[in-house]
Amino acid sequence: MQQPSEREQHLRAMLDASQEAILTFDAQGCVIDANLAAEHMFRFEHHALKGARMSHLITDLRDDLAYFIDQIHQHAANHQTLSLETFIHTSSAQAIPVQLTLRLLPPHSGNELRFAALLRERSREAALQEQLRDALHGTAVRAIDTATVFHSRHYLKARFNDVKALATLSAPEAFVAVACINIDRFKRVNELLGYDAGDHAINAIGQRIEVFLRHESNANGWDVGMCRMSGDEFALVLISERSFVGLADWCKRLQSALAVPLETHNQRFVFSLSGGVAAGELLNSEFEALLTDSEMSMRAIKLRGGNDCLIYAAQQGQSVRPRATEHNVILGMERKQFQPFFQPKVCSDTGQILGFEALLRWQHPELGLIPLGEFFPVLESSSLMLDVGLQIFEQVVATMAQWQTKGVHLPVSFNVSNGELMSQHFRTSLSRLAHQAGVATDQIYLEITENVLANLGQTGEDIFAELQDAGFRLSVDDFGVGTSSLSRLSSIPLREIKVDRSFICDVSSSGRELELLRGIVNLAKSLDLEVVIEGVESPQQLLIAQSLGHLSIQGFCYSRAVNPLQAFELIERQPFALH
Q: Residue 534: beta bridge partners?
């Protein structure tokens, strides 16, 4: 007996991994093969299913199999599949309601015709409807958008999985593209004419997209589908038996189709769209992953002003990961997943909290806390830095205002990058947001690294003077490892220096390192500056820091950075133990 090839083994494994029941049969209606899900559905062993007649297994095929085979051919000529609701008959003569999809397969050997049947129990459809009702707080809906005739995301996902399962047999090299599109400035229709006019307009736009998709399907031989994601967003699926060519041109054609003026309630509107497209091999793709990638691409276009499309190649490997990370950052910012965490600065003499440093954290709903090192370089090199910075600062002052209502008036330090510092809009926004929250600016320390301090020159001195006039207090972060000269400290309106953690990590209770650290602390105190020792972790390091006199200590020895609620709990539990 000839052994199956590696490719055949791979396809067999994918078929058996599918949750959908799949049968292949010949022109005489005899079963050629079946996957594990089909065996379970029919309650037959594999050897018993092979050779069985489809007319014995499926109700509607009993009457006229030739008619259905003819219908399959007609649908195949139009690049479509034949679907119907029917019943199957198990080995125990039980009738089970199913959704049946029939499709013509390419010849396997010679000119022998083969067909595929994909079956899904209709009870699963009912369960899906129940989930939808629960999600909509009990509202009875079908698997379509209630405002219009468009299918829901759940339907499109099921359709995607059906075609993917069939492609395992009929088109293992098929490609898929998922597009997420948003209608630019659509809310102006609702604002000008009301929501009834908006429903009419979005329905007309959706119908225009459907006509466009049907035309593209006929012209290219694609399987297509669409759903309405939300008020003014749609998702589209394109499936081709070969690699997509000219997706960018396809996007332009879609934009042109939408750009034709639309009249509703005696008003004419011209709409544009922001779109994202993610593409890859069908058998190696998941609907939700492609939809997420396309949505992130669409959000990126929205942030750039809209009226364009961005194509994201979902399976080109490592080379696209920086872009994917940037897209995730955009999505994280829009969904307010970036949050300030607070690390206490503790008095070396009393153990009381003297203030906090606000630190940027990404609280992802699925991945949890994402390490700063994984996303900050992308954030820093993008145009998003200012937006995320202001979003975090707004949360910081809101937290401070909430604490103040409970009688807590502690200063908070906020890190400012070189780009943020140079932005007049950013500096003005800091003052505005603090005042809107009712927080005095002299309760806020702006931390600038030593290297930024050294490189700004006269421009920096003017900016520092401006910030001081606005009431902010200035702090030099990571002091001792940069390139600033000591003489500059006296010429800048500083309030605090934070000694870099490398000093306390390397120091011992005696020796040169300790004297160097003591010298930095004494210099700062001679300039009437507050001193913070960063990175204090071990009991030995804590004792050394305390031996340097009155100052603030920050590090894991007291607490990691925690969320606002946990930070307030630290305030309520203070003072910290001194040893």
A: 554
Concatenated DSSP letters of 345-398: EEETTT--EEEEEEEEEEEETTTEEEPHHHHHHHHHHSTTHHHHHHHHHHHHHH
Q: Would you tell me which CATH number, out of the four given (3.90.190.20, 3.10.310.10, 3.30.450.20, 3.50.50.60), belongs to the domain 6-128? A: 3.30.450.20
SS (H, E, C) 101-119: EEEEECCCCCCCCEEEEEE
pTM score over 0.85: no
Q: Taking the CA atoms of the chain, what radius of gyration do you get in angstroms?
A: 32
134-183 pLDDT, tens per residue? 433 333 333 334 444 567 777 788 778 877 777 766 667 788 889 999 98
Helix, strand, coil in percent for the chain, rounding step 5:
45, 25, 30
Domain at 142-315: CATH code: 3.30.70.270
* Interval 303-346: pLDDT, tens: 667 788 888 754 433 333 334 456 677 888 888 889 999 999 99
Look up the CATH number of domain 336-573: 3.20.20.450
Phi, psi of 195 (to 5 degrees): -75, -30
